[in-house]
Amino acid sequence: MSPERWRKVGELYNEVLELTSQQRAALLSAADADLRAEVESLLAQNSEGLLDRSLVSADSSIERLPAGTQLGAYRIEAALGAGGMGEVYRARDQRLGRTVALKVLAAHLSRSPDLRERLEREARILSSLNHPHICTLYDIGCEGETFYLVMEYLEGETLRERLKRGAFSISELLQLAIQVADSLDVAHRAGAIHRDVKPENIFLTTRGQPKLLDFGIAKQRLPIRTQDSKTPSPILQEITGSGIVVGTEAYMSPEQARGQEVDPRTDIFSFGVVLYEVATGVRPFQGETSPILFDAILNRTPPPPSRCSANLPGELDHIILKTLEKDRDLRFQTMAEVCERLKCVKDALDGGKTVVPHRPTRSKPRRNPVWRLIALICALMMSLAVLTLYFRDRSGQKIDSLAILPFTNAAGDSNKEYLSDGIAENLINSLSQLPRLRVAARALAFRYRGSQVDPQQAGRDLHVRAVLTGSLAEHDGDLSIQADLVRVDDGSQIWGRQYNGKFTDILGLQQEIAQEVAGKLQLRPTADEQKKLAKRSTDSTEAYQLYLKGRYYWDRRTELTLKRAVDYFEQAIQKDPGYALAYAALADCYAVFAGHEVAAPAMAMPKARAAATKALQLDNTLAGAHAALGFTVMQYEWDWAAAEREFHQSIRYDADYATAYHWYGVFLSLTGRIDEGIAALKRAQQLEPLSLMISASLGRELYHARRYDEAIDEMRKALEMDANFAALHWWLGLPYEQKGMHQDAIEEFRTASRLSKGNPSALGALGHAYAAAGQRQKALQILADLRELARQRYVAPFEISLIYAGLGDNGHVWEWLEAALEDRSWGVMFLKVDPRFDHLRADPRFHDLLRRMRLES
After folding, report:
1. At 697, is the secondary structure helix, strand, or coil?
2. What domains can you pick out in the chain, each with its CATH number?
3. Which of 418, 541, 543 has the alpha carbon at shortest distance from 472?
4. Using CA atoms, how far apart are residues 451 and 601, in angstroms rounded to an integer?
5. What is the 8-class DSSP label of residue 817?
6. In what helix (H) or strand (E) does residue 273 lie, and over which residues does it extend?
7. d(Cα 481, Cα 501) in Å, to the nearest integer?
């Protein structure tokens, strides 16, 4: 690629990075086809989190090493392209007189010990493999600060480029699949997992031979422990840093998407995605955003490939779909097994035979012809019976997934919205106890609020087979609930019923609805599962009603609604002192009081601890109570080990509890394990993709990681869902400020202050931004405003220290940081990672503060 061509690619790439997914698609569709292909390839590489603008700018990436540059015994002849870690060049091995490919780690990345270790690990993995369909590694070298791999030079194109030119024949498809499967089998036997199998990493030589490329994020099967712990973190640990989810999103296995430990079966899944795409021309899992794509990978079953390409043999359908099983125990267990099955299909086709599933054969005794005839008649009768039942009653098909949409408020009374939402939420909680039923998460289902929702469309969007809708009316103590269960594929009603009774019967009615739905779905709960369905958190209707009201206000997460939620939860506890869920919810509220500057930590945090402790005394399995306790001891007591234990317990009791991953992600980040924290927050986002607070927190931790462009992109995408969420504007201003975009930062902080009605944290950030922009008088005015505001309400000392830091008044900075330390201000927790205090890091007093917070030894 010429420098001019590369410059154009870089300009377009940098432009699309600033856009939303819809704007990006529009811009790319109008671009030159070849430019679009190059940029899309770079965007795919960027999903690894290692490709940034400096790799695709006109003056930095591909022309950095000109022709004639000598690296050891290798003389560079020409640039070939850029990848996630650097550049690839054609070079001449002057000792052996052969052409080689040099993969050079980008100069600005070479200074990272972690990435240099990754390069060396790639070399070790590649050097242990010897296979005609794996790119051969010749050498590894270091010239000054330049690290490089010397590899076999290949001429041809990637599988991605080949797919643009049209479909493969069945014979070509099978030959390619067998060769790639065999190469992965050899890698797995050597103890290596590729973990990024995709069309870009399969190269087709000019002779049509595939070569597997880039084991740069492969992982050898060795136990990896975190620096700060003797036991592995429950968040994924990979060689690129504990807790980073790596790999290209569209080709990830479910276990990769969840951030779980991987084994060779993850390559089997990714191989299946590639095979599906080569066979059909489309990917099996698609989505415009990461959360939607991950939801498809985790929950959606793709249609059989033969529906997209009618000439595919049925057994190939079976092989591909088995590689794509969500549960890895149900997949093929080895690539050798996949390879053998593919060979059977190819042999049968080459021999002109009908392909049948490969099964072990065994000798059978000869049978009397009469008995054979009787067996044949019986088989025909059974087939007819099955076909008759199938066509007569399609509702007999198994329904293994369900969405419960928010019930509509039939009376139109806005004061009863908490009730209709609460019933749907409790049904979700009850029915999700059944292991054979996947229930769409509350955050996903609750976006379909309103009487005009099409249940079929909602079901398709959520990738479920059935949808439960309902309406509720309550008047003067009389309660009427209508519930309807609808099939998604044809819109037919499976079941419907109206429940009438007194409001005091609401707990029993909810239990009855859950049991009837389980029965209509033919789930046949076990005795233990029946107990879970019948379990009540309280027998007091009044306490339950108050709890629902509290949850309604807690979800809105403003200073006023948090105070109202506390009032309702406390009333619920008065009605039922044994109500564990109400104590856990009360702990949630008090735990976030300081962060929202509703009250001083010394007032709120002991109450949060007491409520969480009481909840666990009543029910030690409550994930929410463990998470709230972890958040409390993290924020107020700085007992980092105890906090991590509680977060682990929360995840243990509910592996899909988004708040646990959210708060654990914050914990990991502020203690310096930022990459792990980002991975945990991404897991929380997968579980609740519509949570604005989780998206805001993810953006903030990307900011703490100094990944400012990613932070901006994350929060801009979230603002498309709700432009009035104050925290998003507040934390969007932070990366703007660090990038020198001072006016943009100031505007975001102003918006956050307006939306939060003058929250001191937003004002503190605004004051610092004014100071950083050189607008000293405005910063001093904010400082005076905060001091005046402190006469009326709680203002964290940290906000004062922040403005002094922006003004460069270090004497007052240390005074107010000491006060923030004594106050246990929310913001002071992030001192170790907050870029706004970078200028103080050389001062011994800074490290003394961190030691007193137990963040340094």
Report:
1. helix
2. 3-152 (3.30.200.20), 156-350 (1.10.510.10), 401-536 (3.40.50.10070), 539-601+608-633 (1.25.40.10), 602-607+634-852 (1.25.40.10)
3. 418
4. 42
5. H
6. helix 264-280
7. 9
Which residue, 429, 455, 459, 457, is CA-closest to 441?
A: 429
Tell me phi and psi for residue 465, to 5 degrees: -90, -20
Residue 780 has a CB neighbour count (10 Å cut-off) of: 15
Q: Would you state the pLDDT for residue 745?
A: 95
β partners of residue 570: none
Tens of pLDDT along 31-71?
666 666 666 655 554 433 333 333 333 333 444 678 888 88
Buried/exposed 190-229: b ≥16 CB within 10 Å, e otherwise: eebbbbbbbbbbbbbeeeeebbbbbbbbbbeeeeeebeee
Q: Kindly state the helix (H) or strand (E) to which residue 581 belongs, with its residue range.
A: helix 580-593
Burial 526-541 (b: 16+ CB within 10 A, else e): eeebeeebeeebbebb
Are 160 and 230 a contacting pair, CB within 8 Å?
no
Q: Which H/E stretch holds residue 265?
A: helix 264-280
List the end-to-end C-alpha distance of the chain, in Å, as a whole number. Answer: 51
Three-state secondary structure call for residue 47:
coil
DSSP secondary structure string for all residues of 744-785:
HHHHHHHHHHHHTTS-HHHHHHHHHHHHHTT-HHHHHHHHHH
Which residue, chain included where needed, has tokens 């021309």? Answer: 281
**Residue 312 token pair:** 């595919």
> Is the distance from CB of 800 to CB of 579 less than 8 angstroms?
no
Cβ-based neighbour number of residue 302 at 10 Å: 21
Summarize pLDDT for 764-807 with one digit per residue, the tens.
999 999 999 999 999 999 999 998 888 888 899 999 999 999 99
0.85 surpassed by pTM = no
DSSP string, 305-373: GGGT-TTS-HHHHHHHHHHT-SSGGGS-S-HHHHHHHHHHHHHHHHTTPPP-------------HHHHH
Per the CB < 8 A criterion, the answer to whether 737 and 745 are in contact is yes
Residues 6+ apart with CB under 8 A from 633: 609, 639, 642, 643, 646
Using an 8 Å Cβ cutoff, are 803 and 764 in contact?
Answer: yes
CA dihedral sign, ordered 851, 855, 856, 857: positive
User: Cα separation of 439 and 453, whole Å?
Assistant: 18
CB atoms within 10 A of CB 469: 22
- For 512, other C-beta atoms within 10 Å of its C-beta total 17
Taking the C-alpha atoms of residue 678 and residue 709, their distance in angstroms, rounded to an integer, is: 15
Contact indicator for 855, 832 with CB cutoff of 8 Å:
yes
- What amino acid is encoded at 267 in this protein? D
Closest CA to 296 of 281, 285, 306: 285
What is the enclosing helix (H) or strand (E) of 812? Answer: helix 810-823
Fill in the amino acid letter for 153. Y
Task: Calculate what percentage of the chain has a pLDDT beyond 70.
Answer: 77
Length of the chain: 857
Tell which residue, 94, 54, 41, has the closest CA to residue 71: 94
SS (H, E, C) 535-546: CCCCCCHHHHHH
Q: Where are the beta strands (DSSP E) in 411-513?
A: 438-439, 466-475, 478-487, 493-502
Query: Average pLDDT for residues 221-235, to the nearest whole number?
Result: 33
Look at residue 420 and tell me whether its pLDDT is greater than 80.
no
The closest alpha carbon to 687, from 432, 398, 418, 399, belongs to 432
Q: Are strands 219-220 and 192-193 parallel, antiparallel or unpaired?
A: antiparallel
Report, as residue numbers or ranges, the catalytic residues: 196
CA distance 15 to 764: 32
